[in-house]
Design brief:
This protein has 747 residues and is an alpha+beta fold. The chain has 15 helices and 31 strands. The radius of gyration is 31 Å and the shape is elongated.
Length: 747
Amino acid sequence: MNEPYHGEVEDFYTSDLKKFPGEKVNAWLCATWSSSGSGVSFSRLHVFLCLSLLCQAGNLLGHPQCLDYGPPFQPPFHLEFCTAYENFGCCDQEKDNSIAAKYWEIMDYIDPQGHKLCGRYIKDILCQECSPYAAHLYDAENPQTPLRNLPGLCFDYCSEFHFNCYSAISLLTGDKHIQECCETNKTRFCNLLNLHDKDYCFPNVLKNTDLNRNLGSVVEDRKGCLQLCLTEVANGLRNPVLMVHANDRTHRMFVAEQVGVIWIYLPDGSRLEEPFLDIKTIVLATPWVGDERGFLGLAFHPKYKYNGKFYIHYSYMDKKRVEKIRISELKVSASDINKADPHSERNLLELKEPAANHNGGQLLFGLDGYMYIFTGDGGKAGDPFGKFGNAQNKSALLGKVLRIDVDGKSTTGKPYRIPPDNPFVSDANARPEVYAYGVRNMWRCAVDRGDPVTRKGRGRLFCGDVGQNRFEEIDIIVKGGNYGWRAKEGFECYDTKLCHNSSLDDILPIFAYGRNVGKSVTGGYVYRGCESPNLNGLYIFGDFMNGRLMALQEDEKTNKWKKQDICIGNTKACAFPGMISSYSKFIISFAEDEAGKLYFMSTSYPSAYAPHGSLYKFVDPARRAPPGKCKLKPVPVKTKSKRIPFAPRAKTILELLNEPPTTQPPGKSSSTGVTRTTSSKKAKTTPLGRMKASTLKPASAGKKTQKIKTKVKHKPKQKVKVTKVSKTTPAPSSTKKNPRITRTKKL
């Protein structure tokens, strides 16, 4: 045994270990030893260290990710320098220009022979910051590990570079350790730059068909399940039934709990300590699991910014102990933009509820400026009210989509007007408020914003209608449409006699699914946001009972919709800071913020009083919009109430990967990332027909964007030849600071 060399390795371990992430330490300790040719054998400590670090490095498999910890993107403009990545990567034009400036600054110190010999290598190495796999090449996938100064190079390529241009190493990095140990030692240098996974080193990463086949597209697993990621935005909520924005450019999010409390979340993720509205003493809600009564709807007037009006839908019990639903108008406080005036309530409509279930609850404004109200069929089972049921009875307001004009009063004394083009205004046997009928219990509807460029789809009204015992359905609401209930359920007959006598003009669902898929649909949104362009046009929805997330994609040629499952929390695709691997099972509602980002709310224990509900944001790990395109400028809001910072409860994927392996309790989570229950009590839910009540938690998971510190080096006084260059020649600094993250830089 060569003890002096053994001591050299131990000295390196004790003095420099903290400088290098696991993968590079593994490469140094395991490969540098073998390169000495001395036949030294490691001690047990070193063997254990190599194996443990190798395992740690394998935790984070390579996936497309940039040095700012975000997914890659399609540059909005042509890249003049790093042209290999002009279609997809991690550089916009500004970053490309910065890299080009650094390249020419380096080349100023190299003689003409070096230009020919080393120019291509230097350009390739610098441009790896633009690679869609830049984070893996620079070990930037985990914020806890130091960042490399140089990207991971394949050994053969690295050897060629070192053989031809070793004297340029000091121009590419100012790391003295690299300059002193590796400028003349090719094996050491290339072992330090080596990546454990050979598929991801440069230039192999460009040639790997598996890594580049669908680069930039939404990732699908072998079964076609779309791989999306989540961040936790809010937690500790009591059955959060909805989240809406006021469209006033403040980008505040208003989250309503089933008990009758509305909270405000600010763009920085904090929540105001005092609620926007608290009417829980009026709202009829109980702790019973699955109780569908409570605060169910909220919509802001299209001109809320100017008139301060908003509308709510809730269950209550009148003085005669009769259960009703009430739709009313309120105004924001004149003295505080973050507080409603509870004394301003103006009742618009009250409906008697024959049963405790099927209360509908959705309120929204269409592009026409009118308010749409969605009512359930009255409850119980099979719509047993009257000869044909409430839903088919156009003289009843239950089981309907209603449309009213809230900006006026009718001549008959109603506190609203009837839009003159409502479909049944001339039908003496129908209520003029009715816009569509034959619905069972639509739970969560949304207006499509339309394609950001073509505006296609703008104004379409999507709804999820909960089925009786066979089918759940997704519908697009049209004026005067009959959606079939109770004659039909999904595409099939429910009441055989009514079904055989029903009209052929009944509106069929765009999609329906049976009990093998789920038991209680929760309607969602068509994604039209800026952040995740891959998701544009996808209608994303879920099932309350089993926590299944799904997406519908329209075939423009056939106008038919194809369904795909959504899988959450893949540890490879979602190994980004702030991403989580699971969510609470019972999906209550979906939401869209002012910028078009998409969210959903779920709970682990569906009781109106249980604070187990959370709010999550969808993230596409495969592609994002170019930097700056989606930059928001929220209108500042003066707050009188204390701001409560977001405190995440869910562990991120990176935190889980860095934990020692443990045995997971059975039934904790599923492959789709659903957390089955976190309550000490077991949630027993029976599909009553709508959301089956649920509870959420407030949280806004995010990551801090840090800046990389770039050391400014003194320029050498003379040009250097490629064959001879001082080992102490410092690397020239970039003309601009590198926009990566503040961590200790390292090879």
